[in-house]
Amino acid sequence: MLTTKLRLSSALIKPLRLHPRWSSSAAEPPPAGGHLPGVATSNTLRTTRDVALRTPGITWADEDPSGPDRNIVGGRETRKMNTYQAVRDAMSIALMKDDTAVIFGEDVAFGGVFRCTMGLAEEFGKERVFNTPLTEQGIAGFGIGLAVMGHTAIAEIQFADYIYPAFDQIVNEAAKIRYRSGGQYDVGGLTIRTPTMSVGHGGLYHSQSPEGFFMGASGLKIVIPRSPIQAKGLLLASIRDPNPVIFMEPKILYRSAVEQVPVDDFALPLGKAETLIPGSDLTLLTWGTPVYHCETAMHMLSSPPPGINAHIPKSLRDAKIELIDLRTILPWDVETVVESVKRTGRLVVVHEAGLTAGVGAEISAEVQKRCFLKLNAPVKRVTGWDLPAALQYEKFNIPDAVRIVDAIVETLSY
Amino acid sequence: MASLARFRIPRRLPLLHGVRSIQTTADTTQLLQNAPSDDPSVPFTVKLHEDSFHTFNCDKPELEVQVTKEQLLTMYRQMQTMRRMEMAADALYKAKMIRGFCHLAIGQEAVSVGLEHGIRPDDRVITAYRCHPFAVMRGGTVTGVLGELLGRQNGMSHGKGGSMHIFTPSFFGGNGIVGAQVPVGAGVAFAQKYMGEKNATFALYGDGASNQGQVFEAFNMAKLWNLPAVFVCENNKYGMGTPAERSSSNTAYFTRGDKIPGLQVNGMDIIAALQAVQYARKWAVDDEKGPLLLEFVTYRYGGHSMSDPGTTYRTREEVQRMRSTRDPIRGLQRYIEEWGLATEQELKQLDKDAKAEIDAAVEEAKKSPEPLTKDLWSDIYIKGSEPPFMRGREREEASVFVLYCLDEVTN
């Protein structure tokens, strides 16, 4: 079992290393050094110190958040990190500042299959960063027990696909304990990290996006970051949030997304979406890996590559698309989304999980109710099909830039 | 089918030759010296039946146990109170005042009361859904338990949990999911070890839950990390409606921990239960030997839950025989009378006191109002970190938690 897991994961890591400029456009590969942005060249990534330190919503742990917004960034340093380094950096800060914090999971002591805990066992000791048996349900229950004692438990489920044995503990125990004990007990110190979404070749049990399954579990929070800065700030906020949080890290972004990440202790707000690109004609809402597919699709719309040129009406090419990263899936930021859709009149939701009862279904229902008279087109969902993420079909299953641009065109010309 | 039925009825479980089964009588402990008559707190020695314990990779506990008159009388009163509380719950359920699920522990009082007398207040206990006596013994109140069952504000979880959801600071609750509390207990024990506390966690589960995968996962983690966790199997012979022999390939539950040693205990004799718990606590805390499995062989008189009459999978005669020959309360009553610790009259007075306490608690619990409507949405997220709206909170589904908080302040 273990060797299978390790072999699979090293197979996952290798191609990422070979193709750091993995493109999000599946149907029409861009020319070498092409004009379409992917993860490596995304404009949403903050690759300079100044831009990184001015990340919207950032709160520094050493500054009083109730004070006036000073926006002074002098004296703070950044370091170039990819997502797994940023995750590691966040956990290192959590362990350093909180003596009760421990990290445990399958293979975390030697760094984890995605290297997120690299060196932490050496740095903080094997009592605080330790391996568990292959026992996902046990890990979750154990973490709940630890957290119910007021400790900070940072559990890792090696792949989000393996979270299902722990589903009972998470939904029935972690989510409900505050309620069913009348507020006497809580597991606010529990954070479950798990790598999610597809890499293009993960197959049935290494490419799923299970965030939607937890959406009905009131009491939980679900967070999915899109970049290194987001990962660090949101993970630190999740670890310190007084509610149990499932923190899902898009695994293809571990290496491919690189930013200048502030080295200080900081947090980004949970429950808040971020508008990455403002617009007025259509709201494009997504989270995790598809953020970059959406960005690619927006470029395809404004300057279509030759292959799809004929399919993009000239009249639509100047459309202003508003790109929103939802970031927290539960509780999701209804206000930001609804405010945006009321302005644009159109919504396209993109996620990797299947269509039926996916997160997009909940968002569409809520938006059509709140924005019914403002909508100029039905809410469109671009998602994985209602299918297992089968290995050979993964590229067809993942919503790519072409499917997104097609949905944008359809919605704009409705 | 008729011939099959005839074949089934007289069938007896085969007894293994050469293995003496555990003694489950409640009254076979012998007095070794006369109890001191003047001071009720002076200990004296009694000797348990030699088949009170079976061991697996560990030494047998001493059969000679030190007890005091005070302790035995307290235990008697507590066991009576627990039984009467469960009987009151039964009556309230049948009067349709308690709704939903309700699992009673009548017949198993020696485990909950014996456990409490063998551990310290700052040890931790976690159990499954048959949790009412543990909640009271661990610092709760009878009113709090009955109030919770009735879904009233004075319930221990403010009426929001119900039967399986009762907690105290050292009791991590009844837990409704079969077996789910066992790895949680391992986590609690780890936290104790991590903090260097001189305490143990007692994680209880039943013979039915013992076959859940996560129970074994918890065993493994506890042994791997040498946690001060005592895994307590309350073997009441039936997992819901299935006899232990038909659900478990190995019904010697104390041997199922692999490298974890185990102790099988007569769970009907409270003095044996007390001695076993003291042994387990010393094992896990003082001797730092890591986890231990403790199996109490006990019996529940009632059905699995209120919707189970408890007579479809066992005979009425079997239940009656257990009641008349193995009852833990009658056993202790006999010790107290035979050893000259109290007269029948004095014990009757204790019974009356227990009954009066329960009757008063029932009335007090009934008087408490049901939870407020607004608390339907509290305790999901911590105050101040709630989502801006929650589905179903009101017809418009657009109510804002901030407004609700303001309401509360101005009210």
Entry summary:
The complex is a heterodimer of chains A (414) and B (411). Chain A has 414 residues and is an alpha/beta fold.
Which helices and strands occur, and which strands form pairs?
The complex is a heterodimer of chains A (414) and B (411).
Chain A lengths: L1 H17 L30 H5 L5 E2 L17 E5 H15 L4 E4 L14 H5 L4 E3 L4 H13 L4 E4 L10 H8 L2 H4 L9 E7 L24 E3 L4 H13 L4 E6 L2 H4 L1 E5 L3 E2 L6 E4 L4 E5 L3 H13 L18 E5 L2 E3 L3 H11 L2 E8 L4 H12 L9 E5 L9 H4 L3 H12 L2
Parallel strand pairs in A: 3-4, 3-5, 5-6, 6-8, 7-8, 12-13, 12-15, 15-16
Antiparallel strand pairs in A: 1-10, 2-9, 7-14, 11-13
Helix pairs in contact in A: 3-8, 5-6, 10-14, 11-12
Chain B lengths: L1 H7 L21 E2 L12 E4 L5 E4 L7 E4 L1 H26 L14 H10 L5 E3 L5 H6 L4 H9 L30 H14 L6 E6 L6 H12 L4 E7 L2 E2 L2 E2 H4 L14 E5 L3 H17 L5 E6 L18 H10 L2 H11 L5 H24 L33 H10 L1
Parallel strand pairs in B: 5-6, 6-7, 7-11, 10-11
Antiparallel strand pairs in B: 1-2, 2-4, 3-10, 8-9
Helix pairs in contact in B: 2-3, 2-5, 2-11, 2-12, 3-9, 5-12, 6-7
Please tell me about this protein's structure.
The complex is a heterodimer of chains A (414) and B (411). Chain A has 414 residues and is an alpha/beta fold. Chain A has two domains: 40-267, Rossmann fold (3-Layer(aba) Sandwich); 273-413, 3-Layer(aba) Sandwich (Rossmann fold), CATH 3.40.50.920. Chain A is built from 14 helices and 16 strands. Chain A has helices spanning 2-18, 49-53, 83-97, 120-124, 136-148, 167-174, 177-180, 228-240, 253-256, 290-302, 334-344, 359-370, 394-397, 401-412; strands at residues 59-60, 78-82, 102-105, 129-131, 153-156, 190-196, 221-223, 245-250, 258-262, 266-267, 274-277, 282-286, 321-325, 328-330, 347-354, 380-384. Chain A has a seven-stranded mixed beta sheet with strand order 4-3-5-6-8-7-14, sandwiched between helices. Chain A has a five-stranded mixed beta sheet with strand order 11-13-12-15-16, with helices on both faces. In chain A, strand 15, helix 12 and strand 16 (380-384) form a beta-alpha-beta unit. In chain A, helix 5 (136-148) packs parallel to helix 6 and helix 11 crosses helix 12 (359-370). Chain A is globular, with a radius of gyration of 21 Å. Chain A starts with a helix and ends with a helix. By secondary structure, chain B is of the alpha/beta class. Chain B has a single domain (30-241, 250-307, 316-372), classed as Thiamin diphosphate (ThDP)-binding fold, Pyr/PP domains (Rossmann fold, 3-Layer(aba) Sandwich), CATH 3.40.50. Helices cover 39% and strands 11% of the residues of chain B. Chain B contains 13 helices and eleven strands. Chain B has helices at 2-8, 69-94, 109-118, 132-137, 142-150, 181-194, 213-224, 244-247, 270-286, 316-325, 328-338, 344-367, 401-410; strands at 30-31, 44-47, 53-56, 64-67, 124-126, 201-206, 229-235, 238-239, 242-243, 262-266, 292-297. In chain B, strands 3-10-11-7-6-5 form a six-stranded mixed beta sheet, with helices on both faces. A three-stranded antiparallel beta sheet of chain B has the order 1-2-4. In chain B, strand 6, helix 7 (213-224) and strand 7 form a beta-alpha-beta unit. In chain B, helix 2 runs antiparallel to helix 11 (328-338) and helix 5 packs across helix 12. The longest helix of chain B is centred in the first third of the chain and has 26 residues, at 69-94. At the A-B interface, helix 5, helix 6 and helix 7 of A face helix 6 and helix 7 of B.
